[in-house]
Amino acid sequence: MTNANSPKLSTSLDQGVPPRVRFCPSPTGNPHVGLVRTALFNWAFARHNGGTMVFRIEDTDAARDSEESYNQLLDSMRWLGLDWDEGPTAFDSASGAGGGPHAPYRQSQRMDIYKDVAQKLMAGGYAYECFCTALELEVRRDAARAAGKPSGYDGTCRNLSADRIERYKAEGREAIVRFRMPDEPITFTDLVRGELTFNPDNVPDYGIIRANGAPLYTLVNPVDDALMEITHVLRGEDLLSSTPRQIALYKALIELGIAKEIPQFGHLPYVMGEGNKKLSKRDPEASLNLYRERGFLPQGLLNYLSLLGWSIAEDRDIFSIEEMVAAFDVKDVNANPARFDLKKCEHINAEHLRMLSVDEFIAACEPWLKAPYANWKPESFDRAAFEAIAPHAQTRVTVLSDITANVDFLFLDEPVEDEASWAKAMKGEPVPLLTTARAKLEAADWTSPESLKEAVLAAGEEHGLKLGKAQAPVRVAVTGRTVGLPLFESLEILGKEKTLARIDAALAKLTA
């Protein structure tokens, strides 16, 4: 074998050849925002450089993979708008049609390929059978730790004689297949972190085939990258330690005529959660489904996730996905961990909601105007009233699911009963104020919110109250809440009859 210290790294981008990147999740559980960030950076890199986005499914773990999770991955990518060029199905179709020149794109359908490559690695001396038992490995690791030495695999089975191999097999020992790492340091230039060197003591021989013949991630991932001609691998920092092993494997695959070149690697920074701990799948804010259910816009969520390690400019946080693609360069990614800030994520989403046209906003709200989100009867929904209130709601909501609580007073028979709001607004002596406000509202011009404001202002002045104090009891009587959309526009849309009836109901409750 030749020295793996000088790998033949991909130079496709430098030579003007469009890059090929891949997004290769495992279908286990719900998609999480760290996974989405990885998909986004790969997608933006491919689109910026006119390259190809390969969507590959790593589903070789039969115990954990599920078809439900696989379908969730497809649905999530489509919802986000992160389209792919090659994959197990077409981006714009759920029919199952898809593919590309390197199909199939599900690892569970490529087992014969991995078996063939493993045999070639064995035949070429790049891999070998290891008969060490789990107990033997643990005893030797403990001894190495006690002696202050590296505790990785010690190479016991690296150069077994044919007689020893036959004797182990006769004893009934099972063997895994290990890749034979070179004895020299491995150096490569990470697109995010610069030049990195790994010494051989820290990168021991590693398993590529289980004792039952099943291939491991350490084999299938680089083999697929090689056969699918991936030129750039952008992935999480947690996989950095596996990169020297993969580079050595790529070198062997090149010598065997299986790979053409080694892709360039870029390791994206950790996404941190509360307490400066790495955001895990178990953290509530990590679940992509949470953001969909709350009504985040895909463009708002992607805008925020792009800021986890990258920025379009020092003083700019809000931009479109098209602007991100135009500006994205992986060399601008920051290697330092990025902290996930839910409040900032919500703020950015709110800004994207404001950027929609009113018609777009109304269309985006549609799912939240129906069961199970809406708490009113379907027949009570008045589309004209909603379209009239929508421009005012658009300036207030943070996520689309906020819309129901903001407009439900229009469609409910009675306003929402909120005891805290009622107690806060009805302090002192609200009956005289409400009685006066009702009389002045009844005489007001209901085609003008300004006229309704003047009516409540005049009622407040009669009782020595400024507008803010005067309108609070009216707002709670009519909408049920102390905070909401602009009051007088809301009253105009609700209408004179319903407004006065609700004030009457409030007065009856106060005087009961």
Topology:
Blueprint: E1 20-23, H1 33-48, E2 52-55, H2 67-80, H3 111-123, E3 127-130, H4 134-146, H5 162-170, E4 176-179, E5 186-190, E6 194-198, E7 206-209, H6 217-227, E8 232-236, H7 243-255, E9 264-268, E10 271-272, H8 288-294, H9 298-306, H10 321-327, E11 338-339, H11 342-355, H12 358-365, H13 383-394, H14 403-407, H15 419-425, H16 430-442, H17 449-462, H18 467-479, H19 487-494, H20 496-511
Parallel strand pairs: 1-2, 8-9, 10-11
Antiparallel strand pairs: 3-4, 4-7, 5-6
Helix pairs in contact: 1-10, 6-7, 9-11, 13-19, 16-17, 16-20, 17-18, 17-19
What does this molecule look like?
The chain is mainly alpha-helical and 512 residues long. It is 43% helix and 9% strand. The chain contains 20 helices and 11 strands. The chain has helices at residues 33-48, 67-80, 111-123, 134-146, 162-170, 217-227, 243-255, 288-294, 298-306, 321-327, 342-355, 358-365, 383-394, 403-407, 419-425, 430-442, 449-462, 467-479, 487-494, 496-511, and strands at residues 20-23, 52-55, 127-130, 176-179, 186-190, 194-198, 206-209, 232-236, 264-268, 271-272, 338-339. The strands form 5 sheets. The protein has a 3-stranded antiparallel sheet with strand order 3-4-7. Strands 1-2 form a two-stranded parallel sheet. The protein has a two-stranded antiparallel sheet with strand order 5-6. Strand 1 (20-23), helix 1 (33-48) and strand 2 (52-55) form a beta-alpha-beta unit. Helix 1 crosses helix 10 (321-327) and helix 16 (430-442) runs antiparallel to helix 20. The protein is elongated, with a radius of gyration of 31 Å. The protein starts with 19 loop residues before the first strand and ends with a helix. The relative contact order is 0.09.
